[in-house]
Amino acid sequence: MDELIRKRQNPTHQMTEKGRAIEEESFRIVDEEAGPHGFSELEWPIVRRMIHATADFEYKTLTRFSPQAVEAGLEALKQGARILVDARMIACGLNPERLALFGNEVVELLAHPEVVARAQATGGTRAEAAVAYAEEKGLLEGAIVGVGNAPTFLLALARAVERGARPALVLGMPVGFVNVVEAKRALMALPVPWIVTEGRKGGSTLVVAALHALLRLAADGGVDTSRAHRR
User: Fold this and answer.
1) Which is it for strands 169-172 and 194-197: parallel, antiparallel or unpaired?
2) Among all residues, which ones are annotated catalytic?
3) What is the pLDDT of residue 222?
């Protein structure tokens, strides 16, 4: 009963009993159909939610974690780290009540006047200009960076890290055809924690799913509390 009350009060869980039952059953189905895997107890809840969000079991084989990536993300969230994203879709998809648990601010810069002006002046993409602006303002330091749309954002971020920027965690999940694979490989060679979807597949939906999974783990003390996991 205490666990049920806690879940009702915890915004990372569904608000109603019926909603929780549907989510738990969805997770159970994913666990059953996914079968054995090599992910850790902290990694699997993230991959499972990504599969849950897309109904695509290929993410079981495409998702990669650097050592201690989840732990780094959880610690950053609990310390109130900002979440810097490459697309408004990610910002819109994140639940405000869940973000409020630890006071995590979501920052999306593509429409910022200085970013737009920089892109127009240089002829580059707004994504590249957004990373340059974030680096200059110190917004990358200790941040969780979510990239679900623009490989140019991820490539620019990789160059910023090579210059010394140190985000707490990078979710490298852009989708597309041009420079997508190269951008993800560049990230995986860097000395920062990362979670990546290999190949061309990815998207803002996956970043939102991964962040919600991280927020739930952080709120639950780093433990997968779903009934599906315990069965």
Assistant:
1) parallel
2) 52
3) 67
